[in-house]
Amino acid sequence: MEVHDKNRGNLARYNITAWFYDILDFPWELRYRGWRPHLVGDVRGRVLEAGVGTGRNLRHYPPEAELTALDLSPAMLRKAAGRVREARCPVHFLRGDACMMDEVPSDAYDWVVATFLCCVLPRELQPAAVGELARVLRPGGRFRLLEMVYSSDPRLLRRQRMFTPFVQKVYGARFDRHTLRHVRENRDLVVTGTRFLRHDIYLLIEGEKRQ
Questions:
Q1: What's the confidence (pLDDT) of residue 172?
Q2: In b/e form, how buried is each residue of 77-98, taking b as 16+ CB within 10 angstroms?
Q3: Are 133 and 143 in contact (CB under 8 A)?
Q4: Rounded to the nearest 10 degrees, how much is the dihedral formed by the CA atoms of 3, 148, 208, 111?
Q5: What is the pLDDT of residues 47-67, one digit of tens each?
Q6: For the chain, does the N or the C end have fewer beta carbons within 10 angstroms?
Q7: Segment (H or E) for 196
Q8: How far is residue 52's CA from residue 41's CA, in Å, rounded to a whole number?
Q9: Residue 7 pLDDT greater than 90, yes or no
Q10: Separation CA 61–CA 40 (nearest Å)
């Protein structure tokens, strides 16, 4: 498996963070767990979840899905594998860098799903990641991306900026990524809808690959 040089920091970070990730993430998971059935519950066919993390989405995929669960960190994949018994669909775990998925053929998936993937990537790798997600999606296939962005509400923005050093150190995450712009700039992808799941922070991006 190849890892982009600029992503090696995330590989090292998540191999450590994996051991206590679910504990750290618990306060946020109280919110996320209500969203997960709606994020993946309607997908069908061959599905790639890029950045599967510790596998919180696995139990919510329907039986009609055939899931490839990809993550950069072997430690995170081991955590996710511990949840595979909860899944109702077949799951294949794959270690890989979402920015350079050489082991994944083009036009292979009916769906691509990613939750908080691009916001943890270095800024310069975002276009590469979006390009790879487009490449592995079949023409007419659909995608669903959930990201975090800075709020325009001054009160919420102050709170986000207070947490920024922590989330960047532990998760490698930032709120100033421009995932939606990179998706719109990709000539193979069409955005069919965007909406915020909470405030103007949790941005859901949906679309399809051009036929």
A1: 85
A2: bebbbebeeebebebebbebbb
A3: yes
A4: 60
A5: 999 999 999 999 999 999 999
A6: C
A7: strand 189-198
A8: 15
A9: no
A10: 6
What pLDDT is attached to residue 47? 98
Residue 199 and residue 156 in contact, taking contact as beta carbons nearer than 8 Å: yes
Predicted TM-score (pTM) of the model is 0.94
> Which residues lie closer than 8 Å to 27 by C-beta, 6 or more apart?
none
Q: Which two structure tokens, joined as six digits, stand for 49? A: 């979840």
162: Cβ–Cβ under 8 A, 6 or more apart, which residues?
A: none
Confidence band, pLDDT 50/70/90 cuts, at residue 82 = very high
Cα 61 to Cα 159: distance, rounded to the nearest angstrom: 33
Count of CA atoms in the C-beta half-sphere (13 A) of 167: 18
CA atoms of 210 and 138, how far apart (whole Å): 9
Q: How confident is the model at residue 168 (pLDDT cuts 50, 70, 90)?
A: confident
| Number of Cβ within a 10 Å radius of residue 72 | 26
Q: What is the pLDDT of residue 202?
A: 96
Q: What is the DSSP string of 12-76?
A: HHHHHHTTTHHHHHHHHHHHHHHHHHHHHTT--EEEEEES-TT-TTGGGS-TTEEEEEEES-HHH
Pull the structure tokens for residue 3: 């890892």
Given a cut of 90, is residue 24 above it in pLDDT?
Answer: no
